[in-house]
Amino acid sequence: MSNEIKQMMLNIGQRARQASRAMARASSEQKDQALLHIAKLIREKANEIQRVNQLDVERATLKGQDAAFIDRLTMTPKTIESMALGLEQIVSLEDPIGKMTALQKQASGIELGQMRVPLGVIGIIYESRPNVTIDAAALCLKSGNAVILRGGSEAIDSNTLLAQLIQAGLDAAQLPMDAVQVVTTTDRSAVGEMITMTEYIDVIVPRGGKSLIARLMAEARVPMIKHLDGICHTYIDADADIAMAIKVCDNAKTQRYAPCNAMETLLVNQAIAQQVLPTLCKIYQDKGVELRVDALTRKALEENGFEGLVDATEEDWQTEYLAPILSIKTVANMDEAMSHIEQYGSKHTDAIITNNQAQANRFLREVDSASVMVNASTRFADGFEYGLGAEIGISNDKLHARGPVGLDGLTSLKYIVMGHGEIRS
Amino acid sequence: MSNEIKQMMLNIGQRARQASRAMARASSEQKDQALLHIAKLIREKANEIQRVNQLDVERATLKGQDAAFIDRLTMTPKTIESMALGLEQIVSLEDPIGKMTALQKQASGIELGQMRVPLGVIGIIYESRPNVTIDAAALCLKSGNAVILRGGSEAIDSNTLLAQLIQAGLDAAQLPMDAVQVVTTTDRSAVGEMITMTEYIDVIVPRGGKSLIARLMAEARVPMIKHLDGICHTYIDADADIAMAIKVCDNAKTQRYAPCNAMETLLVNQAIAQQVLPTLCKIYQDKGVELRVDALTRKALEENGFEGLVDATEEDWQTEYLAPILSIKTVANMDEAMSHIEQYGSKHTDAIITNNQAQANRFLREVDSASVMVNASTRFADGFEYGLGAEIGISNDKLHARGPVGLDGLTSLKYIVMGHGEIRS
């Protein structure tokens, strides 16, 4: 890494650390004032945002980026307005900072409680979507943290402008402008520095594809709240309501293909396979979903005249398709389903469809995933659906934050002791 | 690393992962039965434990280990009985596993809650105290985890015997013996493997001195719940009760010198320095505490006839003495005290002595330490004193667990969704 980049990043880090102290002390009113001011500026400057974003889009197009990439990069009047609405929504959330649990008197006489406080400095590493600059900054500000944002180099002009609007909003609320800094170098070594400067960054939230996360994991020294992959399962139990199973499993796979909480593997109890698979798989095929199946499922479907089935390979069970492809396995019982989930799942979100409460309870307790569901679509694993108001991401980790991460995930609890002169004996 | 050690560790890891699944499903009764059986065996085999421990002690003595080391290594009838009592105390704690928050209905109709579950496999890396083998294993078992224990090579005979008793206890309760495994090789590369085998270990809890932790931090890929150092401060405010200040600060420094929660630096408001320092420092000097002071403190003390003061250097402010040495600084106000704590503290435990509620509230909110105290001795920062029943350690980290870590720190919360056929639209 060039020494110049290293110095630049350390300087950014020092300023972020300094700003984080003021942010930790900021009142809810100040933070909300800054967020509302940013929303106002975004609306006022909507044309300029689009114009500057166009520079990024043109450069990316010349570079030959594909349509999906250009789509993620492009800001429209609608995406710009939704950034402003997102800010107003975060304003409406309760400020978590300073909240205290009730004090509990201990044997010695001291009174003990816990207070929610910011983590300090958050580093966000993301790819091409410029709206993450606003969304992530807003969540970090509301939770009293400073943030260092490192977006994709392709969005550099958009991100630089958005950062200016954020800093103007901070300034208007008498908060330090260094509380939100955008790394404006496109040198990749800046990321290497961010993920190792443990003195200045308390946690890294990487937002992006699996390859980005894997690369960061190999080198990071700063702790990460990270999302890896969502190989989500639904198991249709022998005691399932058949109509419900069909409706929920259709939704879990086809409502949207790209989100991490979409179902990738369907597990069906063999006792109910003949009743549920033909109807459900007809829906899938009509929607253009490719079915990759084990031998029992193939048999059940071919007996009902299905064609175009693909044999599922070992690799299919461990693949997050994020596409109109579904792997299906017929299992002997719930234990086989849970073993499959244990072996191939990614501990993201797994569901059971059953009317048997005992089975549901065992599934809830024994499946080791961030979200475990009974009779609901895996697509519900989401910060908004969970009432968190917003999410910085969905964590695959078990430590700290698990599943959809809202404002609380960007905070920590410290112990508070109120004494009256107590000493230890 | 030799391939043989690597294979051995992977094998231990695989067996631990396997056992962790059974442990997650174990009932509270089974876990308690195992713990009580281990306590019974420890009492029955007390003589054998002492005899085997003596082998370790003799080897360490021959190697020229110092008296403090030998003291930590040696097991007496008293330390053996206290292991058994510790097990019984952990049995009396409430089982955290399976506890659920109330279900909350969301906008879509789904009902959302969180359930407390084990982390999975815990790795404990510790030094010479063999009692950690029992204490740490018991906490991990009670919280439904499997554990891999790697104690100091000097305690290998003691640890191997204790592991056998633990495994006998597990077996008696029909729990998998692999739920507690002791690494019996003294090859140091085993530690290198433990801290990087992310597939088989979910969290590492290192218990030992700063140099051990620093070495692990440089190489670990597995997340750690770690304790680094405790540079604890007490600030005596201008509005302090003088008698209380003297009593509490005496206790914080001299009740015991070695614990991490002992005070290392005293900060005194200059408005009260003349009233509090002479009496307090007389107590310290009478107890043989060396005083390392700034110029203002020296002046205040020399005017009162004190001798033998040492000038505090920059290094003193950042030193965890764990010894009868105290650094003292006279400050202009609470802001200067908080700046000093921010610059030199270790975010462990810091206290204020004051009768001014507004000052106390600012100190509580603004000091960024795991434990922040008002009018109490820093020595209270401890899992037992906090009513956690036991502690696996004290965390200096902000993520996951902060401050004294009890059973809850060895668990995670997963989301539970109870649906009625809801789908996303």
TrEMBL record, chains A, B:
GO terms for cellular component: cytoplasm. Signal peptide: none annotated. It is an enzyme of class 1 (oxidoreductase). GO terms for molecular function: glutamate-5-semialdehyde dehydrogenase activity; NADP binding. Pfam families: Aldedh. It comes from the Bacteria. It is found in: Cytoplasm. It catalyses: L-glutamate 5-semialdehyde + phosphate + NADP(+) = L-glutamyl 5-phosphate + NADPH + H(+). Residues 14-282, 313-381 form the Aldehyde dehydrogenase domain. Gene3D superfamilies: Aldehyde Dehydrogenase, Chain A, domain 1, Aldehyde Dehydrogenase, Chain A, domain 2. Belongs to the gamma-glutamyl phosphate reductase family. Its EC number is 1.2.1.41. One of its GO terms (biological process) is L-proline biosynthetic process. This is Gamma-glutamyl phosphate reductase. Pathway: Amino-acid biosynthesis; L-proline biosynthesis; L-glutamate 5-semialdehyde from L-glutamate: step 2/2. Catalyzes the NADPH-dependent reduction of L-glutamate 5-phosphate into L-glutamate 5-semialdehyde and phosphate. The product spontaneously undergoes cyclization to form 1-pyrroline-5-carboxylate. Keywords: Amino-acid biosynthesis, Cytoplasm, NADP, Oxidoreductase, Proline biosynthesis. It comes from Polynucleobacter antarcticus.
